[in-house]
C-alpha cells in the first residue's frame, strides 16, 4: 500500500553522483510492502540462471525416448540458500524489502493473458533494468544488491524462485506463519520479456477500494486475499522523499534498526502479527486522536470503509490465528501467479519433514524392551546393569524426565508393610545395600524382625536421652 523501507539503504548506491529518479506518489505500490531509494549506478547481470531451464537426454536402452532430467531449480541449493537468507535477515533487518521483492515480481500477472511470459508474474523479470526502473519498484535495487551474492553462490536456482523464497522466508523469520510454498519457477531470459509498467497498485488512488479490486481481481485474487495481504503492512516503513508518503522520521523509526528514519504502519515494524488491523480498528472512531507517528494510507483506511473488506479486517483484528491462516494461503497464491513451473506441478522444500516424526517413533518403539537388564539380582556386584537400566528408562516412552537419568524411588514404609510374606524387590535391594556396606551378605536370612529392631533402637535412644536430661 505504499513504499516501505526495510534495509533499503544498508548498501549505498554504487554511483553516488548519479541523479535520483523522481518517484511520484502515484507510483507507490498500494497493497504491496514497499521500499524505495535511489536506483542509480548498480547494474546486475541480466543473464539467465546457469542451470538450463529445460534439459532433455535420451534414456538408456530405448532409443528416441526423451526424458526430463532436471528441474528449473535445484532443491538442495534452494534449501542452502534459505539458510543464507535467514542469516542475511538477522544482520540486515531486510525483512520488508525482501517481502516486497517477491511481491513485485509476481504482482504484474494478468489472468486475461494466457501466453507466458507476456502474462507477467513470478518469472524473475525484476532483475532487469527495464523493470527496475518502473516507478513502483524504486528502491528494489537495494534488495537485489543484498540477494545477488546468494544467487552467485547457488547458480542452480532461478531468480524467480530466489525472489519468492526470500519473500516467504522473511515473513516466517519475522514471526509470521509458515507459507506453503512450491518451487521450480522458470526465469525469463531477456529484458524484452518484461511486463509493461502500470500493473502494480497505487497508494493514493481516487477511489481506493475500486482501485484495489481492479488490480487484484486482474491477478485472480479476491476480497479476502486483498485484506489478508494488506496485513503485511505490519512490516516496514515509508519515506516521503522516495514515495511521497510518510514522515522523515518518527519516535518509532529514528533509531532504526537499519538506516534510521521513515514512518511505519505499526510500532514494532519488524514483527509480523495482526497489530496493523488492531490499530486500524482503534482509528475508526478516534481518528483525530490517533498516534500521528503511525502511517495510514488511503488504501489502508479503505479496509474499514468498504463493507466487504471490513468483514475480514475486523476478523483479523480479533483473531490473529485466522489472519495467519488466510495470509499464508494468499501469499502462496500470489507467489505462484503467472509462473511457469518445471516440473509442471512444482516441488516443495519441506515434503520430507512430514515423514521425520514417523521415522523417529519407529526407532523409539523397540526401546522399552531391555529384557536383558532385568535380572540385575544375579549380578549385584557389576555396575553395568545400572547403566542399562538408566539407558532403558531414558529411551522409554513413559519417561517424563526429558532424557535425564531417573531419580531413586522415595521410600514409603506403607508400600512394603501391608502383610506381604515376601519383601518387594526394591526393599530387598535396599537391605542388600545396607548389609554390603558393613561387610554382610545379602544371601544370609535375617535373624530378627528388621523393622522391630529399628524401632527398639530408636526407643532405647529416646529413653537414654530422657535419663540424661533429668
TrEMBL record:
Keyword Transcription regulation on entry: no
Transmembrane segments annotated in the record for this chain: 450-469
Reactions this protein catalyses: L-ascorbate + H2O2 = L-dehydroascorbate + 2 H2O
Domain Plant heme peroxidase family profile: 121-360
Primary location class: plastid
Record family assignment: Belongs to the peroxidase family. Ascorbate peroxidase subfamily.
Protein known as: L-ascorbate peroxidase
Organism classification: Eukaryota, Viridiplantae, Streptophyta, Embryophyta, Tracheophyta
GO molecular function: heme binding; L-ascorbate peroxidase activity; metal ion binding
GO CC annotations on file: chloroplast
Protein EC: 1.11.1.11
Amino acid at each position: 500500500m505504499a513504499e516501505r523501507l526495510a534495509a533499503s539503504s544498508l548498501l549505498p548506491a554504487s554511483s553516488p553522483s548519479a541523479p535520483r529518479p523522481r518517484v511520484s506518489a502515484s507510483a507507490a505500490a498500494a497493497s504491496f510492502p514497499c521500499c524505495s531509494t535511489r536506483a542509480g549506478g548498480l547494474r546486475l547481470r541480466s543473464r539467465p540462471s546457469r542451470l538450463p531451464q529445460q534439459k532433455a537426454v535420451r534414456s538408456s536402452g530405448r532409443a528416441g525416448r526423451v526424458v526430463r532430467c532436471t528441474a528449473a531449480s535445484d532443491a538442495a541449493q534452494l534449501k542452502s540458500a534459505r539458510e543464507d537468507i535467514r542469516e542475511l535477515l538477522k544482520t540486515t533487518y531486510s525483512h520488508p524489502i525482501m517481502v516486497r521483492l517477491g511481491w513485485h515480481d509476481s504482482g504484474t500477472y494478468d489472468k486475461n493473458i494466457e501466453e507466458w511470459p507476456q502474462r507477467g508474474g513470478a518469472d524473475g523479470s525484476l532483475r532487469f533494468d527495464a523493470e527496475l526502473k518502473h516507478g513502483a519498484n524504486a528502491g528494489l535495487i537495494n534488495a537485489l544488491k543484498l540477494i545477488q551474492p546468494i544467487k552467485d553462490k547457488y547458480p542452480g536456482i532461478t531468480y524467480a524462485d530466489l525472489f519468492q523464497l526470500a519473500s516467504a522466508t522473511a515473513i516466517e523469520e519475522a514471526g509470521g506463519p509458515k507459507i506453503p510454498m512450491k518451487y521450480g519457477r522458470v526465469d525469463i531470459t531477456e529484458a524484452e520479456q518484461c511486463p509493461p509498467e502500470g500493473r502494480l497498485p497505487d497508494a493514493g488512488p481516487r477511489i481506493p477500494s475500486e482501485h484495489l479490486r481492479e488490480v487484484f481481481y486482474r491477478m485472480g485474487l479476491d476480497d479476502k486475499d486483498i485484506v489478508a495481504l494488506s496485513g503485511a503492512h505490519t512490516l516496514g516503513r515509508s519515506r516521503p522523499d522516495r514515495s511521497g508518503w510518510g514522515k522523515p522520521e518518527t519516535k518509532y523509526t529514528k533509531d532504526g534498526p537499519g538506516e534510521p528514519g521513515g514512518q511505519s504502519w505499526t510500532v514494532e515494524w519488524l514483527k509480523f502479527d495482526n497489530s496493523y488491523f488492531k490499530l486500524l480498528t482503534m482509528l475508526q472512531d478516534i481518528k483525530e486522536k490517533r498516534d500521528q507517528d503511525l502511517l495510514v494510507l488511503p488504501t489502508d483506511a479503505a479496509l474499514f470503509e468498504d463493507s466487504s473488506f471490513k468483514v475480514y479486517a475486523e476478523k483479523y483484528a480479533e483473531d490473529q490465528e485466522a489472519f495467519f491462516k488466510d495470509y499464508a494461503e494468499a501469499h502462496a497464491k500470489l507467489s505462484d501467479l503467472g509462473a511457469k513451473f518445471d516440473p509442471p506441478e512444482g516441488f516443495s522444500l519441506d515434503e520430507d519433514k512430514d515423514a521425520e516424526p514417523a521415522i523417529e517413533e519407529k526407532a523409539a518403539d523397540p526401546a522399552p524392551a531391555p529384557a536383558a537388564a532385568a535380572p540385575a539380582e544375579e549380578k549385584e556386584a557389576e555396575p553395568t546393569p545400572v547403566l542399562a537400566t538408566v539407558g532403558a528408562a531414558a529411551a522409554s516412552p513413559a519417561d517424563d524426565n526429558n532424557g535425564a537419568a531417573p531419580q531413586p524411588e522415595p521410600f514409603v514404609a506403607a508400600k512394603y508393610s501391608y502383610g506381604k510374606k515376601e519383601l518387594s524387590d526394591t526393599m530387598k535391594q535396599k537391605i542388600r545395600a545396607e548389609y554390603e556396606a558393613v561387610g554382610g551378605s545379602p544371601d544370609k536370612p535375617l535373624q530378627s524382625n528388621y523393622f522391630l529392631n529399628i524401632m527398639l533402637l530408636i526407643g532405647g535412644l529416646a529413653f537414654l536421652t530422657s535419663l540424661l536430661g533429668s
